[in-house]
Design a protein that fits this description.
One of its GO terms (biological process) is carbohydrate derivative metabolic process. This protein has helices spanning 42-53, 63-70, 74-83, 89-98, 104-114, 122-140, 143-155, 167-180, 194-199, 218-230, 244-248, 267-284, 286-301; strands at 2-8, 11-19, 25-36, 159-163, 185-187, 207-212, 233-238, 251-254. It has 308 residues and is of the alpha/beta class. The radius of gyration is 23 Å and the shape is globular.
Length: 308
């Protein structure tokens, strides 16, 4: 990705350009900050520079995130949006959304563009995407945080697992594998008041393990707030580089799922999950192996009653 900041007729215009794998450049959208550049204060110019250089992350940011990165106050950020022609950050995000910068159809269209010719190797292309995400995740995940997550899961009185959307399948896989080695796992509802039915039981000594991709959802907000009040430890797996959720979580595992507006693979979350399971199994040692051996013995004993 690259961004160009042009001055046309004394107005600030943002051109967001996406470069395909073939090196062709496509103008996706253009935005006009509805104010003359010369009228912006130095603080507002600093914010504008951050917004332009970090457009991929802006849909996931709060005013507080932007203020921290630009080195200004939250109040200054609030005034900036009005100064450049938007009611607030939400209005700017809405314009990004309406411009079609990130929709399921657009994400799929980008990957289809790479395999549009008849001889395209679709499998090879998708393996390439997965490989890139895995490589990025390997570099991005802090190994101290990874080790802390393993220790946290191992010591949890109960492990409450939350994952909505595509991450629900990853949470289900994690619950399946950890339960086999004796971790007391509770799967939480994806949304609505049913989420509260399990959340109410989480307290001191318990761990809330959260998958939070793309943006902060109301469910994640509620879970993080409850964890703080109830004394639970939180582990967050996210693809966000900038989010206030990071500061609110005890353990952060940041992964790479691809460009913000591109195809988001679940390969990296699954790989991270598998690695955590192996780590917890190793830490539990003989206790975990005995659980697995007992499971194998039960399978043999009841093979005729419960065929595979």
């Amino acid at each position: 990705m690259k961004y160009n900041f042009h001055r046309l007729s004394s107005y600030a215009i943002l051109w967001w350009k996406a470069t395909s794998g073939q090196g062709r450049v496509q103008i996706v959208a253009d935005f006009q900050f509805r104010v003359e550049l010369d009228t912006l204060s130095k603080s507002h110019q600093a914010i504008a520079n951050y917004v332009i250089g970090s457009l991929q992350q802006i849909p996931y940011c709060t005013d507080e995130d932007i203020a921290r990165q630009a080195g200004v106050s939250t109040a200054t950020v609030s005034r900036f949006w009005r100064a450049v022609g938007y009611a607030n950050l939400k209005a700017f995000k809405l314009e990004l959304l309406q411009a079609g910068l990130s929709t399921p159809a657009r994400k799929m269209k980008q990957i289809l563009h790479k395999v549009e010719h008849d001889e395209a190797d679709i499998l090879g292309e998708m393996i390439g995407v997965a490989s890139s995400n895995l490589s990025g995740t390997g570099k991005r995940v802090d190994r101290r945080q990874f080790d802390l997550a393993i220790e946290t899961i191992h010591r949890a009185r109960k492990l409450y697992l939350y994952g909505g959307g595509p991450s629900a399948s990853v949470a289900e896989l994690m619950a399946y594998r950890l339960s086999r080695i004796g971790v007391d796992v509770i799967r939480m509802a994806v949304s609505g008041r049913e989420l509260l039915e399990t959340m109410v039981h989480a307290g001191s000594g318990d761990v809330l393990f959260l998958f939070g991709f793309v943006k902060r959802t109301p469910e994640l907000t509620v879970l993080l707030q409850h964890a703080k009040e109830a004394g639970c430890v939180t582990v967050l797996v996210t693809d966000l580089l900038v989010s206030d959720m990071l500061a609110q979580s005890d353990c952060k595992l940041q992964i790479d799922r691809g460009e913000w507006d591109g195809f988001h693979s679940m390969t990296a979350p699954i790989a991270l999950t598998e690695a955590l399971v192996v780590g917890v199994t190793k830490l539990r040692g003989r206790e975990a192996m005995e659980k697995l051996e007992r499971l194998h013995a039960l399978r043999k004993r009841y093979a005729s009653h419960l065929p595979k």
